[in-house]
Write a structure and sequence with these properties.
Maltoporin, Chain A; signal; transport; mainly beta; 34 strands; Plug_dom_sf; cell outer membrane; membrane
């Protein structure tokens, strides 16, 4: 009932607002330069023409937010959920789903996908782009597989960097603050007669959260990041341009011991053996490296016909190596046989051996085990229980393991844009992508996947009040198979800058290499302890190999309007999104059961208001109401029923700027989030061509909740950092 009321009210609002103000805005249309967006259909469109809801975070908003990383900027997007697994690992989800596995957003940097092929996620910390080089971030809120292929299931985030001609000269910036914040940026831009080039070096560092597990022991989730980005634009002639980039980043993320022993911590202690396993807790830090090269060639064949070719190659590495200790039982052939037959049985035996349940092992297993192997599983469990006794006075088995993975991608895309007449435009194209993931731990070697995409979108305007759009993407993956994602949209224009839209779309997300093709077991090296051959680790997570794509059907009614006389832009969206055949299982070595058995449904409304009240004042408000159902409780954690933001940006005399931004969400993994950010900045002219900018950012938590997980806490609700930027 509540959802229906929200739908009706939003529909009336969409119809009534333009009618009350439109009469005063029409005379200004002749002098208005319409804004355009690029990331919806691959066609340049005014906001009122987009077949869906767009959020554009421009440079003023990005700077006013004071954000140090991209996920913090995305809090300004209605319906975007920001979750922290730890201080150096952030997850971004639109409308939610699994709190630890952000699998359903396509993220682009100037058209290059940074969505990892091996693990369906985005490593936000490793993206080799400095905030200072970003021109705007365009966010398509809703499924957009029709334009960008599988993995754009919930939306598309396109990070668009500044053109090198806008960053000529030298810029130096240093930021220092609480929680170990220490950032820096050095940028040099230069030009020739027909080209502009920018070189940016940057780094970030912080200590993460502050919680202490033991007195004097720091919570290890800090990060250190260094980046380099070389970008150039070359005007070949009057109709041809070439833009290219080289980018790299090197990251170190702190991490705790990332190994769960078969035996160890528990209520039942047999002696020093268990203590030695529990006390062995080396760090499992992650070293990351990203490299990318891309080139974009554009040519105007005629004023109404253009062609572009995008090519890029990228390589990522995530390296984590350490020495683990466990019971020699971890290499027991009997335990491996039990684990192969029933991973749940192996886990229950482990649980029984480390706790005192007051019953026999077979009686304990009766509570959980069933099926044709029931008696045999009980025999194996009892044999393992007896085998353990011979190791009570022995040393643990210790060995070197790793969770290293290297991923690469090569992509070639051709896109053609054609305007036949004033009523009809087309964009079409095709691409080929080759993905590879290599890991002895996760895949026992390398796995490859080739993807072919063919896409198109037609825009037809039969009358000044009507606009129809039809688009789709056909995609064929060697590992998963083919899929087609269509989208149909209809706009009715109440006035040139005001439209009501009706959108129906279908989208897919193909399972990543890990979900479908993983063969995860630890390749043991330098083994010590009382272990006889064969030295085979007991557990292996094996992907089913036959997972199909997740499927979404989305329906949307929306309104977009620009009231130029009032400096007001408004976007409303009422939506229903249903995802079926979902894989909601966590990615781990034990109890790994990927499947297509989950589903989720989201209904609700979103509003986005941007009001440039005066030349000095800008107000911006976002709100999202999301009513959701999910068959898996894991998909219910990162969806806030109510969330939003409110911002006031002001330019004061004497080159002073201020911004006040409120962020709120009533449920992020069952925790409330409210924060108030203040940024105060002033420019100082130094000579005729130099300028110094000093800025103070203060963040104050209005609640006392942890961020996503209970251990994600700070010692203080207040966080501040000061930056100094010199441009000359």
């Amino acid at each position: 009932m509540f959802t229906n009321r929200i739908t009706v009210l939003a529909g009336f609002a969409a119809l009534s607002l333009p009618l009350t103000l439109q009469a005063t805005t029409d005379p200004l249309l002749d002098d208005l330069e319409l804004p355009t967006v690029l990331s919806a259909t691959r066609l340049k469109q005014a906001p009122a023409e987009v077949p869906g809801s767009m959020t554009v975070l421009d440079r003023q908003l990005i700077r006013a937010s004071g954000a140090r990383d991209i996920p913090e900027i995305l809090r300004l997007v209605p319906g975007m959920m920001i979750g922290y697994r730890r201080g150096n690992q952030i997850n971004v989800n639109y409308h939610g789903t699994n709190v630890t596995e952000a699998r359903r957003l396509q993220v682009l940097v100037d058209g290059r996908s940074v969505y990892r092929p091996g693990f369906a996620t985005v490593d936000w910390a490793e993206i080799p782009v400095a905030i200072e080089d970003i021109d705007r971030i365009e966010v398509f809120r809703g499924p957009n597989t029709a334009a960008y292929g599988a993995n754009a299931l919930m939306g598309v985030i396109n990070i668009i960097t500044r053109h090198p001609r806008e960053t000529l000269g030298t810029s130096l910036k240093v930021t220092k603050g609480t929680r170990g914040v220490s950032d820096w940026v050095a940028r040099q831009g230069f030009s020739t007669d027909n080209s502009q080039t920018r070189l940016t070096l940057s780094g970030m560092q912080d200590d993460g959260f502050d919680i202490y597990e033991e007195p004097g022991q720091e919570y290890r989730d800090g990060k250190r990041l260094n980046r380099v980005n070389l970008s150039s634009a070359f005007q070949i002639d009057a109709t041809n341009t070439l833009e290219w980039q080289l980018a790299a980043s090197e990251t170190s993320r702190q991490g705790y011991y990332d190994y769960s022993p078969f035996l160890g911590s528990g209520a039942t202690r047999l002696g020093q053996f268990d203590d030695l396993i529990d006390e062995w807790q080396p760090n499992s830090d992650i070293r990351g490296s990203d490299y990318a090269a891309q080139a974009l060639w554009k040519t105007d064949l005629t004023p109404d016909h253009s062609l572009q070719v995008l090519a890029y190659a990228q390589h990522t590495e995530r390296l984590s190596e350490w020495r683990a200790c466990d019971s020699p039982l971890a290499f027991s052939p009997t335990l491996k046989e039990l684990s192969d037959l029933s991973p749940l049985g192996a886990r229950r035996v482990s649980r029984y051996l480390t706790h005192n349940y007051g019953v026999t092992l077979r009686e304990y297993m009766e509570r959980f085990m069933y099926g044709e192997y029931y008696d045999y599983l009980g025999d194996l469990g009892e044999a393992i229980q007896q085998e353990r006794l011979q190791y009570v006075d022995s040393e643990p088995a210790c060995f070197d393991i790793n969770q290293n993975i290297r991923e690469s991608r090569y992509h070639l895309e051709v896109q053609d844009t054609l305007r036949l007449n004033e009523q009809l435009r087309f964009v079409s194209g095709a691409s080929y992508r080759q993905d590879r993931a290599k890991s002895e731990t996760y895949f026992g070697g390398a796995i490859d996947n080739g993807i072919v995409q063919v896409f198109g979108n037609a825009e037809y305007r039969p009358h000044q009040n009507w606009l129809f759009q039809l688009g789709g993407m056909y995609e064929d993956s060697e590992l998963v198979g083919d899929a087609f994602s269509p989208r149909l949209a209809m706009h009715y224009f109440l006035a040139p800058l005001h439209s009501i839209r009706f959108v129906y779309s279908e989208a897919v997300r193909t399972p990543d290499m890990y979900e479908n093709n993983v063969n995860w077991t630890y390749q043991v090296k330098n083994l010590s302890g009382p272990v006889s051959s064969p030295q085979t680790y007991y557990v292996t997570a094996v992907g089913p190999g036959n997972l199909g794509p997740e499927k979404m059907r989305s329906r949307e009614v929306g309104y977009n309007g620009t009231f130029h006389q009032y400096g007001l832009a408004l976007d409303l969206r009422v939506f229903q999104e249903r995802i079926t055949e979902m894989d909601s299982e966590p990615l781990k070595i034990t109890d790994f059961y990927p499947n297509n058995e989950s589903s989720a449904e989201f209904e609700g409304a979103e509003a986005q208001i941007d009001w440039r009240a005066t030349y000095a004042d800008r107000f911006r408000v976002t709100y999202a109401y999301v009513d959701f159902e999910a068959s898996s409780e894991l998909d219910q954690r990162l969806t806030a029923r109510n969330s939003g933001s409110a911002a006031w940006l002001r330019s004061w005399p004497a080159q002073i700027e201020s911004s006040v931004i409120y962020y709120g969400a009533d449920q992020l993994n069952e925790r409330r989030f409210e924060r108030l950010d203040l940024r105060l900045a002033k420019d100082f002219d130094i000579g005729q061509a130099s300028q110094l900018n000093l800025a103070l950012v203060v963040q104050h938590r209005l609640d006392d909740e942890a961020l996503t997980w209970s251990e994600n806490l700070y010692d203080s609700r207040n966080h501040y950092y000061l930056s100094a930027e010199l441009n000359f």
